[in-house]
Amino acid sequence: MKLSKYNLSDLNNLLPGEFDLFICSSSFEERSLSVPNSITKNKAKKVIIVRNIDLIEHVGQNTNILSEIFCISSVVNIKTSDPILTADNLDGCLVSALGNKFEGKILLDITAFTHESLLILLRIICLRYPNAQITCTYACATEYSLGDDVKHKWLSRGIGEVRSVLGFPGNIVPSRKTHLILIVGYEHERAAGIIEAIEPNSIALGYGRSASATTDKDKEANELYMHLVEQMATSFSDVKCFEIPCDDPEGTRNEIQVQIKSAVDMNILLAPMNNKLSTVGAAWAALQDENVQMCYAQALRYNYANYSSPGSQFYFFDFVWH
Known about the structure:
The protein is α/β, with parallel strands linked by helices. The chain has helices at 11-14, 34-38, 56-69, 83-98, 115-128, 188-198, 219-232, 249-262, 276-287, and strands at residues 6-7, 19-25, 44-52, 73-78, 105-109, 133-144, 156-169, 178-183, 202-208, 239-244, 267-272, 292-302, 308-318. It folds into two domains: 6-145 and 308-318, Rossmann fold; 150-302, Rossmann fold, CATH 3.40.50.10770. The chain is built from nine helices and 13 strands. A seven-stranded mixed sheet has the order 1-13-6-5-2-3-4, sandwiched between helices. It starts with 5 loop residues before the first strand and ends with a strand.
């Protein structure tokens, strides 16, 4: 499904009907407010605002703004340093809002989640509410790493723990070789850290087709940063590259599935590090193949001041994972 960009001013007319629940994440990015500011307040019966308390000094202001926008909201605390607490709190807040059985409509703004928290949330929703109707929105940026030239753009620096994502343990057999599928974005240092930590037997590096970049200024960077990661992986003899459509979750899923099928009788590890649309595509692939283990590398520092600038457009799509 090829997605199209739409103007945020048209969001209410494009999204179908009323939703039982709207879920969004507060962030240090002003872009975390793009979709919430564009939604008519009666568009959702209930609202959950996700707040990362590890970054409370950076996200607190936007959390307050979101709470003022949605007076009916509940705030749920997560921690990048504690994925178990994150999963428990997300699950508890969903049950509190929707009960144990739910087959209605959820609107999920994926824009400002971390990759790991988004993956955990998708897994919880799909496990607990397999018949829920999930619609995702994603607000575009006009630029990342504001003002930096292509060679010096950065979103995060430093790498903490490399871990499997809760809910995506895979089927790991110690006697098998390991194949790492790594979807590369700007954060090439984190990508290199994952490779060094895992030491896979083979690597497939996925990078965004320039024509599919969700931000015009991404187009030159996609290939550059993939080549940087490729250079860092020169000590591995079996490295290949493939392209993904950054603006098409289903297309990303399909390309990842090709890579999975090519690694016969191997442990499959999947690390999505491009935009959130492609991360949803990666989740889709892993949800449809429980042999796949999802991986995440915790960042030590984000580009708080100049991470992104908000755009005037957004994507939306239905996430039908089964």
